[in-house]
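Long-time lurker. I teach an intro course on protein structure, and each term I like to show students one example going from raw sequence to a predicted 3D structure in token notation. This year I'd like something fresh instead of my usual example. Would anyone be willing to generate the tokens for the chain below so I can use it in lecture? Attribution to the forum is fine with me.
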Amino acid sequence: MKIKASKVKIDGTDRKILDILQSNAKITNSQLSKDIGLSPAPTLERVKKMEASGIINSYHAKLDMKKVGLDVHTFVQISLKGHNKSNIDSFLSKINKIPEVIECHHVTGSCDFILKIISSDIQSYQKLMMEKVSEIDVVDSLQSMVILSTFKDSKVIPIP
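-- Reply from a regular --
Happy to contribute to a lecture. Here you go:
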């Protein structure tokens, strides 16, 4: 069965709300309503509607990874032994159990997956790779890229 993603209609006011919430999810409904030029009740109704429709699916605190001791960030390209459903399912079930893997993308090109991994230092990263990631039986090869500097890390999505 093919599932088609449904596109929800949003207007200019909804876009303003989404822009503001992406920058400051802790904003009060009262302040949000002032910023968009609506009274609080319809503002809250719009936010609740976008939450119910799945446009807004969660709120998060963005942490400073260095301040919490996570100084090593890497991208890892993973190639599987075979690109079939059972290998993909096996890989995903194991990779989803590793909390240091904060992103996992199925991609086209020279590898099958790209992971973003965080760790406290190179030693803990090496241990993670040796004892967990490279031990996943369907992994054929991996290539690590240590992130030296990050110049843009926006979580704000430009809304068309």
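Some talking points for your students: The chain has a mean pLDDT of 93. The first helix runs from residue 12 to 23.
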